[in-house]
Design brief:
about 325 residues; alpha+beta; Immunoglobulin-like; 5-stranded mixed beta sheet; about 20% helix
Length: about 325
């Protein structure tokens, strides 16, 4: 009898245990599915372009401008002493030397060790993002420059990277390198810092070269830069030189962010000309800049963003000039 009762109890308990196990398993699977769905449904950190609005220059920049006295009204004039225009350079090392003159009103490039900021020159190899050049008493050295024709553009800048837009501030030369560096290695400054990545060079090799050069050469200024894709520039045609925004923005610099550029042989519609600068953020709606002055945008969210600047004619067509008049940069906002 006892054996029979035990058998009956087992028969009754087994289905209950199976049902409980099935129910728990289904619940766990359901929770996992919901978690996965929520992760996949998480919105992107990239904002819609409509979230960005134009705003006035931030107070911190106004304070810096006021503290500089007459410097903001300076008219710095640059001259490229080296390389000379149309120079033929044998070897992969190119030295950049500049002369500064004009009505400076105290303007001198130099970096404040305490803040890491100061007046400087924007140096652009081909159509790369600029390098900030502070010490004009020392050559800005480019190493491992590949064979072929290159363009060098320079212009004076304020500590917050707003360009001086007076005549003579901007200069440009072209030069040709014979017997240049290895196209599979990046163009670097004297310490091996990357100026432009010619063929997506291996990072390990680039770092090894940086360590070697750092021990054997004096310190030079430079930062990593992407590879060049632009062609020859016709100096008689309108030219847009992209300057800002660039790189990573943190803390107070993360919002608002400044758009700035240099114009050659072109006058914008609001300044009495026929051209416009068209810009778009993250591939969003195109908007226009009709006066040659900095534009500040607010409403940025954390993450990576693309900024595209184009010089267009009265019909909205990009003005062709070696590919330089349509430039896209990626920036990072950290909040």
């Amino acid at each position: 009898m006892r054996t029979l009762k035990r058998a009956r109890l087992i028969c009754i308990a087994c289905p209950l245990l199976v049902a409980l196990h099935t129910g728990c398993t289904d619940t766990m699977n359901s929770n996992n599915a919901n978690t996965t769905a929520n992760i996949n449904a998480s919105p992107s950190a990239t904002p819609a372009q409509a979230n960005l609005t134009e705003t006035q220059e931030p107070q911190r920049i106004k304070d810096m401008r006021a503290a500089r006295g007459e410097q903001d009204a300076a008219n710095p004039v640059l001259a490229i002493r080296e390389p000379r225009d149309n120079a033929m350079i044998t070897g992969s090392t190119v030295n950049v030397r500049l002369d500064l003159s004009g009505d400076l009103k105290g303007y001198q490039p130099m970096k404040d060790p305490a803040t890491g900021m100061g007046n400087h020159i924007h140096v652009i190899l081909d159509n790369q993002p600029y390098e900030a050049y502070y010490n004009l008493g020392e050559a800005f050295e480019l190493r491992n420059v590949t064979a072929g024709k290159h363009t060098l553009r320079v212009f004076a800048s304020r500590p917050w990277h707003e360009s001086y837009k007076n005549d003579g501030s901007f200069q440009m030369v072209t030069f040709t390198v014979q017997g240049g560096g290895n196209p599979n290695q990046p163009t670097t400054t004297g310490t091996g810092q990357v100026m432009s990545d010619n063929r997506n060079a291996n990072n390990a090799n680039a770092n090894a070269n940086a360590n070697v050069n750092a021990n054997s050469s004096p310190t030079r200024e430079g930062k990593d830069m992407p590879s060049s894709t632009a062609g020859d520039v016709d100096r008689s045609k309108p030219l847009l030189t992209y300057s800002r925004p660039k790189g990573e923005y943190k803390a107070a610099e993360a919002d608002p962010v400044m758009i700035d550029f240099w114009l050659t042989n072109a006058k914008l519609r609001g300044d009495g000309g026929e051209y416009r600068v068209r810009y778009s953020i993250d591939g969003g709606e195109a908007r226009y800049i009709d006066r040659w002055q900095p534009l500040w945008l607010t409403g940025w969210t954390a993450g990576k963003h693309t900024v595209k600047l184009e010089l267009v004619d009265a019909n909205g067509n990009v003005v062709d000039n070696g590919g330089y008049n349509s430039t896209t940069r990626e920036i990072t906002i950290v909040k």
